[in-house]
Specification:
By secondary structure, this protein is of the alpha+beta class. About 25% of the residues lie in helices and about 25% in strands. The strands form five sheets. Strands 3, 4, 5, 6, 7, 8 and 22 form a seven-stranded antiparallel β-sheet that branches.
């Protein structure tokens, strides 16, 4: 059974004829979608046993309202996309913008979280850790104070021009006019190797799990194999999840012969669909290089969700996994996308556990080394507190002393990042 369905056939022309049977409303009307979704949820929703027995489809404006009506308290993860949204986020993986993600770190300051390769921002020299100073000559602090910051950046449309001033961590400033274009969202960032106490450490940031992730992973692991690394740091601090098969590929390429053929995870469905339960082995999928490591470091925050957590949970019974940062978001459940007219529904319909039957980490996976995330430099920089803690662990075999007493609280914003989508945003963090 293939759990991650192909939705390539989603773009069909919708018939306008009436439905058969007892339905007296047009095919794909709001009422039809509401009823179809309710019937689907009664059969496939992971918490189907907790649903009401009946629902009047005419009582709801659209299927989104039906989802909110049916959602159980444990479920903060189910969602619905339009066909266009699905294509942009999982298939084409593009958007119109400058090519950077940003975070408001105070009432008056905004920093760059990351920059996509070959984007206008990257070509201008903007990098993670830089601070936005002004837009079209108006200081960011003033724009934030007046509630004009979002409008100042302009619409995400082809050809929108803005004069951007930014400052590097060393204090130097630059100003350049950037034009918004269609940006392709690479899922692996900051791939590099560097020495720590005579040994070679490999580092990369994994931003999401979408269709291009397999090839992005291969490019990174080719470099790690060529450089014969001794240690690996995987940074998933902002990774909200996505396609599980690429979590499997990443985990298999890390562990290699230490995990090959062993159980990666077990899918568990609701009681009426228990015949769909399945055990999945570690598999390269599109992967080539394997590192055969017996230990891996994973950097996490409350935005590390779903497939990011699966890498940790699935590898833990087989090799040592050292987690550094903040507790993960807590999503031990998943979705099989289902077509519904011009939409794709992502209702929770299974949970995942590892080879030891361990899962249910709804409170998140606690880090071994508690370190608060701060934007202090580019990916892999020794100025970054999470990366620095990993380097200390490589050198000493233990967490930094300062992290032992650190109080890291689960972010209240973490729930904004539960969807397996690479560029979901909340009021503090956004993509341009």
């Amino acid at each position: 059974m293939k759990l991650e369905k192909s939705l390539l056939c989603i773009g069909i022309t919708l018939a306008l004829s009436a439905c058969g049977g007892d339905n007296d409303y047009a095919f794909c009307s709001a009422e039809y979608q509401n009823e179809e979704f309710f019937e689907y949820m009664k059969e496939d929703y992971f918490w189907a046993s907790q649903l009401q027995d009946s629902l009047n489809p005419e009582d709801f404006d659209d299927v989104y309202a039906v989802l909110e009506e049916l959602r159980v308290p444990e479920d903060t993860y189910s969602y619905i996309l339009t066909e266009e949204e699905y294509d942009q986020l999982f298939v084409s993986a593009t958007y119109f913008g400058f090519g950077f993600s940003m975070e408001q770190i105070s009432a008056s300051r905004v920093k760059i979280r990351f920059v996509y390769d070959d984007s206008p921002a990257a070509n201008a020299g903007i990098a993670r850790g830089d601070e936005l100073i002004a837009i079209d000559g108006v200081e960011v602090s003033e724009l934030l104070a007046n509630g004009q910051f979002d409008d100042a950046l302009g619409a995400n449309e082809q050809g929108v021009d803005k004069e951007i001033t930014w400052q590097k961590p060393n204090g130097t400033q630059a100003t350049e006019v950037l034009s918004k274009v269609e940006v392709e969202t690479n899922t692996v960032m900051g791939t590099q190797t560097y020495p720590v106490d005579g040994e070679t450490v490999g580092y990369f940031t994994l931003d999401s799990f979408i269709n291009r992730t397999g090839s992005d992973l291969n490019t990174a692991f080719d470099q790690f194999a060529a450089d014969n690394i001794d240690h690996l740091v995987i940074d998933v601090r902002y990774n909200g999840g996505g396609l599980i098969r690429y979590a499997n590929q990443a985990a298999t390429q890390v562990g290699g012969t230490n995990v090959e053929g062993k159980t990666f995870l077990q899918y568990r469905f609701n009681e009426q669909n228990s015949d769909k339960n399945e055990t999945i082995a570690f598999s390269l999928v599109d992967g080539v290089e394997q590192l055969d490591l017996d230990r891996v470091f994973v950097l996490t925050t409350g935005s590390s969700c779903s497939s990011s957590e699966i890498i940790i949970n699935s590898l833990s019974p087989h090799i040592e996994v050292v987690t550094i940062g903040e507790p993960t978001c807590g999503k031990p459940v998943g979705q099989m996308p289902e077509e519904l007219c011009d939409k794709v529904t992502f209702a929770i319909n299974f949970e995942t556990v590892n080879s030891e039957g361990e899962g249910k980490y709804y409170d998140g996976i606690a880090p071994d080394c508690s370190v608060e995330d701060e934007i202090q430099g580019d990916w892999g920089s020794s100025d970054d507190p999470l990366t620095a803690a990993a380097n200390t662990y490589v050198s000493t075999g233990s967490c930094p002393v300062s992290s032992a007493s650190a109080e890291i609280k689960k972010s209240a914003q973490a729930r904004s990042f539960v969807e397996p989508i690479h560029n979901m945003k909340d009021k503090r963090e956004s993509l341009q």
